[in-house]
Amino acid sequence: MAQIVTAFWKRKTLEQMDRQEWESLCDGCGLCCLQKLEDEDDPSSIYYTRIACKLLDLKTCRCSDYPNRRRHVPDCVQLTPATAAEFAWLPPTCAYRLVAEGEDLPPWHHLVCGDPQMVHHSGISQAGKMLAEGSVADEDWEEHIIFRV
User: Fold this and answer.
1) How far is residue 76 from each of residues 54, 68, 134, measured CA to CA in Å?
2) Is 1 part of a structural domain of the chain?
């Protein structure tokens, strides 16, 4: 008789995950690496722009220097289990946020469907739609808002 194994993200907390499990949660959408704007009148509202961090590969939605990213981008936010309570700024589709909130992963997530390209095929990522950080003047970022969390 076959034993049913529950997926690690359903049976472990973020704190219980090993480094490989933690890193595998990333779906590669790149949305967390888009430049964001805060509303001065409503600091709880965060607006995502289609302007990518200078290290984000615009086609693959992956960091071009992930191990050294904080050296090049000092304000790059490093997600950790200890900061999970602050994940509300992440897009609602983000696996880190979903697991922190006790939700399951979506059907297009590579850990569910087995296809790491599905995040792009399903239209979740901004692959091919992003702009390079240096290509847009700071004062024009508002013109490139794509959604709010």
Assistant:
1) 11, 11, 17
2) no
| 107-141 per-position pLDDT tens digit | 999 999 999 999 999 999 999 999 999 999 999 99
Instruction: With beta carbons less than 8 A apart as the criterion, state whether 36 and 47 touch.
Output: yes
Whether this prediction's pTM lies above 0.85 is answered by: yes
Name which of 76, 39, 77 is nearest 54 in CA terms. Answer: 76
Closest C-alpha to 121, from 112, 132, 108, 131: 108
In a domain, residue 54? The reply is yes
Beta bridge partners of 46: 38
C-alpha span between 39 and 27 (Å, rounded): 27
Domain that holds residue 63: 8-148
Distance CA 123, CA 70 (A): 28
Residue 3 covered by a domain: no
